[in-house]
Design brief:
By secondary structure, the protein is mainly alpha-helical. It has 8 helices and 5 strands, in the order H-H-H-H-E-E-H-H-E-H-E-E-H. It folds into 2 domains: about 5-50, no CATH class; about 60-190, CBS-domain (Roll). A 3-stranded mixed beta sheet has the order 3-4-5. Helix 1 (about 10-20) packs across helix 2.
Length: about 210
């Protein structure tokens, strides 16, 4: 029989539920049922809060300025193992984003072409190695200015929807002042997905007595 996973209640959830009811004595069966319902509400709230963008985003961010050289931006991506850099102006407001795909195109390596998959892109990189030179110019010449952002209080489900609609691999998280405060990538979503699978497996093992 397949066991349907539900949110696991914790002692903290029951404590919140008892506090809501204002009593710790003379508990009847109806009270216990009400406590269980209230505890589940708190557990659902806790689970939703754990999936907020602000709690799971990569932060702090490394940013670059529009006048940063492309070679410096490329060096930052390589040394920090990141695939995209938010671009901010002198007031630290979000001005754009530059990605590894932008830099690859700048040095003549095809990337993100509809007919190119990952292996074709890697093959092109090694095939054209002898012809590749450091990209010239600054970040402003290549950055994407039409930026899609999300807020820290949004959920990962909302972030997934935004990324899917806009066909992007990453989304910048900005605050009320249009300053970048974090980033959510497809890798972050995959990590959360597998973490939940692992949690489900743990719950099933416990319920089955293994």
């Amino acid at each position: 029989m397949r066991i349907r996973h539900s949110t696991r209640l914790t002692k903290e959830d029951f404590d919140h539920a008892l506090t809501d009811m204002g009593t710790y004595i003379d508990v009847t069966v109806d009270d216990l049922m009400e406590i269980s319902n209230r505890a589940r509400i708190h557990a659902n709230i806790r689970e939703k809060e754990s999936l907020l963008v602000g709690r799971l985003m990569t932060s702090p961010l490394h940013t670059v300025r529009p006048d940063t050289t492309l070679s410096a931006a490329a060096h930052a991506m390589v040394t920090m193992r990141i695939s995209g850099l938010p671009v901010v102006d002198q007031d630290k407001k979000l001005a754009g984003i530059i990605t590894e795909a932008d830099l690859l195109r700048a040095i003549g390596v095809p990337s993100h072409h509809p007919t190119h998959n990952l292996w074709q892109t890697l093959e092109a990189m090694f095939t054209h190695h002898a012809l590749i030179q450091s990209p010239e110019g600054n970040v402003a010449s290549l950055m994407t200015r039409d930026i899609v952002t999300i807020r820290p209080e949004h959920t990962l489900h909302e972030a997934l929807g935004v990324m899917k609609r806009n066909r992007i691999k990453r989304i910048i998280v900005s605050n009320d002042d249009s300053e970048p405060v974090g980033m959510i990538t497809r890798s972050d979503l995959v990590r959360v997905f597998f973490d939940r699978i692992r949690a489900n497996d743990t719950d099933h093992t416990t319920l089955n007595g293994n």
